[in-house]
Write a structure and sequence with these properties.
Elements lengths: L1 E2 L8 E4 L2 E11 L7 E8 L5 E7 L3 E2 L5 E11 L2 E6 L5 E5 H4 L11 E7 L2 E6 L3 E9 L12 E6 L4 E5 L7 E5 L5 E4 L1
Antiparallel strand pairs: 1-6, 2-3, 3-4, 4-5, 7-8, 7-10, 8-9, 10-11, 12-13, 12-15, 13-14, 15-16
Length: 185
């Protein structure tokens, strides 16, 4: 069981017989009455997002998710092909099921497959990924303002704001949780 005091972003809970992932939450204390928690939830199977309020202290069953290592093979249109590294079974997820995760995936990359009661829910990225910059504007010597930044397009199509010294062909490390530039590799 998980209570309102143990909430974390990304945790999956069972609510009304369905599987929901916590996207965001806020504790609210009114002048009178008990505290409430406003939670933004995403239905894992349907992708629907809702916002609901609960009394502080409410408990829900924590969804027991199974994680296994998988390898991303390739993508074809909206289909992304993966292989279980233990059993060599292949499976396909659509871009709708992956959401923003697809922008960080490179061929041959190892991820964690998340499944619930034998059904694949999605894949979990590592905390950081290294991506090659495919397109960016050149930085000029006069652009020495502290913290000057520019957009850069990576090999996967992800657009990241980077410092002006980053050039095409550079490999950069990107935080998959925030989508922000970390360092040049």
């Amino acid at each position: 069981m998980i209570s309102t005091g143990e909430l974390k972003k990304g945790v999956a809970i069972e609510l009304d017989g369905e599987l929901w992932q916590i996207l965001d939450y806020h504790h609210i204390k009114m002048g009178r009455g008990s505290a409430q928690v406003r939670i933004t939830l995403r239905n894992i199977k349907r992708g629907q997002t809702v916002e609901r309020s609960f009394q502080a202290g409410t408990k829900w069953p924590r969804a027991s998710m199974e994680k296994r290592p998988v390898q991303f093979l390739y993508h074809e249109g909206d289909d992304y092909h993966f292989m279980d590294t233990d059993t060599y079974d292949q499976f396909v997820l659509t871009s709708d099921q992956l959401g923003e995760t697809a922008q960080y995936m490179k061929d041959g990359m190892t991820l964690d497959r998340t499944s619930y009661q034998g059904e694949t829910i999605g894949v979990e990225l590592p905390v950081t990924v290294d991506l090659v910059v495919r397109g960016t504007e050149p930085g000029f010597a006069g652009d020495t303002q502290t913290g000057a930044r520019k957009p850069a397009t990576t090999e996967t199509g992800l657009v990241v704001t980077v410092p002006i010294f980053i050039e095409e062909g550079d490999t950069i490390r990107v935080d998959t949780r925030t989508g922000e530039y970390q360092t040049r590799v």
